Amino acid sequence: MTEPGRGTKIAVCGAGSVGSTVAYAALLRGLADEIVLYDIATALVEAQAGDLNDGAAFAPPATVVGSDDPAACAGADVVVMTAGARQKPGQTRLDLAEVNVGIVRSVLGSVREHAPDAIYIIVTNPCDVLTYAAVGFLELPPGRVFGSGTVLDTARLRYLLSRRLHVSTRSVHALVAGEHGDSEIVLWSSANVGGVPLAAYDVEGRSIRASEYAEILDTVAGSAYKVIEGKGATNYAIGLAMADIMSAVLRDEHRFLPVSTLFTGQYGISDVCLSAPCVVGLHGAAGPAVLPLDATDLAGLRASADALHHQNRLLGLPSFVGVGTS
């Protein structure tokens, strides 16, 4: 993807709290030689880039550019879409759908002209609906267009489980799947701690009973709403999550991540974007992989897919099965 002699380049569309934090996390991780912030709010985007450049001496070498011209994104290896209407207290992610579909179509339509070979990652909410729409109008193979999905939700879950069990988050292997939103599920049947199935884990009297699963899921699913109620937006955690995803792409790490991709029959689900584990590397997201789920998890995943199918149809989004396969 990156030509010999040319450095890596990230373009972040949207210079608000999420976009600027994504750029900040990428800068600190040394993920690219050039990071572009693109936003139609000229004064804001120039100020954000100036603020980041002022601190460049404290981070790995990189150039940060702020621009209101989509041409600044030319040649980007990764394009991250964060621009959109902000989620308000009490508002669900799906409430944002109609207005943000139009914003994503407009912004990425212009950026694609200048960065046709990039990997496109959708962060703007509702992430799964907008990823599905973007797969269609960008006319790229689905693996090159994917959403941040439940990567952050999974991090929240692992943190919560680690606190309850008094173990490192690195020892907790559990995934949130489905919609990045209200119908998301935890794949409890595949969850384990250090290789021990979660249902059987009991060390020093610390364990998690099946009767606690619903409460844990509610806490994970409600985390963003609690933050939004307190400060108006979430930005730090998604910035760090996006740095992890971008690292997997730019460094070709072949990471197993629950990103949002187009399903084409996996788990009996088709024609919708939602999250399940995928292998993420230089060419985008491969998968989703099919895990051996129990009947409860499988039913939950399919119910989440049905909720997103319904939203896609309400928005009048056409079917894109087969897009990018020619």
UniProtKB/TrEMBL annotation:
Compartment(s) where it occurs, according to its Swiss-Prot or TrEMBL record: Cytoplasm
Keywords: Allosteric enzyme, Cytoplasm, NAD, Oxidoreductase, Phosphoprotein
Pathway this chain belongs to: Fermentation; pyruvate fermentation to lactate; (S)-lactate from pyruvate: step 1/1
Keyword Phosphoprotein applies: yes
Swiss-Prot/TrEMBL catalytic activity: (S)-lactate + NAD(+) = pyruvate + NADH + H(+)
Residues of the Lactate/malate dehydrogenase C-terminal domain: 150-310
SUPFAM superfamilies listed in its UniProt record: LDH C-terminal domain-like, NAD(P)-binding Rossmann-fold domains
Lactate/malate dehydrogenase N-terminal domain mapped to chain residues: 8-147
Phosphotyrosine carried by residues: Y225
InterPro entries cross-referenced by the UniProt entry: L-lactate/malate_DH, L-lactate_DH, L-lactate_DH_AS, Lactate/malate_DH_C, Lactate/malate_DH_N, Lactate_DH/Glyco_Ohase_4_C, NAD(P)-bd_dom_sf
Keyword Kinase: no
Active-site residues annotated for this sequence: H180 (proton acceptor)
Main location, first listed in the record: cytoplasm
GO molecular function: L-lactate dehydrogenase (NAD+) activity
Pfam families (alphabetical): Ldh_1_C, Ldh_1_N
PROSITE patterns per record: L_LDH
GO biological process: glycolytic process; lactate metabolic process
UniProt-annotated binding residues for beta-D-fructose 1,6-bisphosphate: R158, H173
Annotated substrate binding sites: Q87, R93, N125, P126, C127, D128, D153, T154, A155, R156, T234
Family, as annotated: Belongs to the LDH/MDH superfamily. LDH family.
Cited HAMAP family: Lactate_dehydrog
Protein name: L-lactate dehydrogenase
Species of origin: Mumia zhuanghuii
